[in-house]
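Structure first, sequence second, as always.
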């Protein structure tokens, strides 16, 4: 995971298409911020790391537990029976585990859902796999179809986020493979899938691949480049999301020793790692570097203000009107929920919204109405972001 459990525990401006959600996103991105608080809606989870919905109009929420189980929330109550249990296939612990789920945009009809997990079977690797719904409205563990395996040289920096973009393609955030300061220089190696944002077509496989390569991926046909790459130069993107209003792809990239960053991921962009850490030359690599050609982050903060950024969402709900258009994010070690407004060129306003003393926020999540949640990895709880009562 992008947050450092072992220490202290995209897109080229895609035009927004219709998201498979019942709630219309609020519109606007000014410079206002509303006061918020967190309302616990469920506890009793085991190391939750991801929350999402199926886009099927059911109102259900799905919570990924790191050890390899996906749980279901119905009307803010935890369903006893798991939605999926693949603990025997998952290598969990530290930054490894079952790390996210993404529902096919046509899930209501085809019953397909995709997961990202780490496995030790045959050597440590990341697995991107598809499962299908069974007759009991769960995912059938026997239906697994592995789309992609990526070897992991170390046991950290697995990335872990997958999500369908508004273009219908599956985006996969891959870390640099681990250790410290990217010793294999994977972030700047276009011949590897590590340290990159990938973009694949799950509906049109191109054998021998179990998936297709979108024709407009930026490096298709370019010698020495993996065609799956949408953008590169990432260290460990821990949570990315598409803004339901603008279509922009926001990603939080965890820093090494000094800087945490928020990026807008663009088609073909190079985000600098390991040459750069955030907006500075990577101190442990070379404090003097040529910054030309690298995409700059839209926001950064320095250690010790935080040590492991957790990316969130642009708020597009309707319950907190004054927050519309603000991107929310936090830090696993220093759980201050921050917000910023980005106008497509620059950040126009930013603010600290909430200090979550004692929380270990591993992820944000969004429901069908675009309301937001956070997961407390340590306490095993789901908390909803609501308007402040005072």
């Amino acid at each position: 995971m992008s947050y450092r459990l072992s220490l202290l525990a995209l897109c080229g401006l895609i035009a927004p298409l219709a998201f498979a959600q019942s709630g219309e996103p609020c519109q606007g991105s000014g410079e206002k911020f509303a006061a918020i608080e967190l309302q616990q809606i469920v506890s009793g989870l085991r190391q939750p790391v991801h929350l999402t919905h199926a886009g099927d109009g059911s109102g259900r929420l799905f919570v990924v537990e790191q050890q390899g189980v996906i749980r279901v929330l119905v009307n803010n109550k935890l369903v006893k029976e798991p939605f999926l249990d693949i603990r025997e296939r998952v290598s969990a612990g530290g930054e490894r585990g079952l790390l996210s789920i993404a529902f096919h945009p046509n899930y209501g009809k085809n019953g397909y859902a995709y997961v990202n997990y780490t496995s030790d079977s045959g050597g440590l690797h990341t697995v991107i796999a598809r499962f299908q719904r069974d007759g009991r409205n769960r995912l059938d563990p026997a239906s697994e179809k592995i789309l992609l395996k990526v070897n992991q040289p170390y046991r950290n920096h697995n990335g872990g986020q997958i999500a369908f973009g508004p273009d219908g393609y599956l985006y996969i955030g891959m870390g640099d493979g681990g250790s410290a300061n990217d010793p294999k220089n994977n972030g700047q190696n276009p011949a590897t899938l590590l340290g990159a944002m990938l973009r694949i077509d799950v509906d049109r496989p191109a054998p021998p691949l179990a998936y297709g390569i979108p024709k407009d991926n930026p490096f298709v046909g370019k010698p020495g480049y993996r065609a799956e790459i949408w953008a590169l130069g990432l260290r460990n993107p821990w949570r990315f999301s598409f803004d339901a209003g603008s279509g922009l792809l926001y990603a939080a990239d965890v820093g090494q020793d000094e800087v945490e960053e928020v990026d807008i991921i663009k088609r073909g962009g190079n985000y600098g790692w390991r040459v750069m850490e955030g907006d500075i030359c990577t101190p442990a690599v070379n404090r003097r570097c040529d910054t030309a050609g690298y995409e700059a982050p839209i926001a950064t903060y320095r250690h010790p203000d935080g040590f492991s950024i957790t990316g969130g969402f642009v708020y597009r709900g309707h319950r907190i009107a004054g927050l519309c258009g603000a991107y929310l994010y936090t830090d696993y070690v220093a759980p201050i929920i921050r917000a910023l407004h980005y106008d497509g060129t620059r950040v126009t306003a930013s603010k600290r919204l909430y200090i979550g003393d004692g929380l270990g926020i591993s992820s944000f999540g969004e429901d069908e109405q675009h309301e937001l949640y956070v997961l407390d990895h340590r306490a095993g709880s789901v908390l909803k972001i609501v308007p402040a009562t005072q």
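Margin note: The chain has one domain: 5-387.
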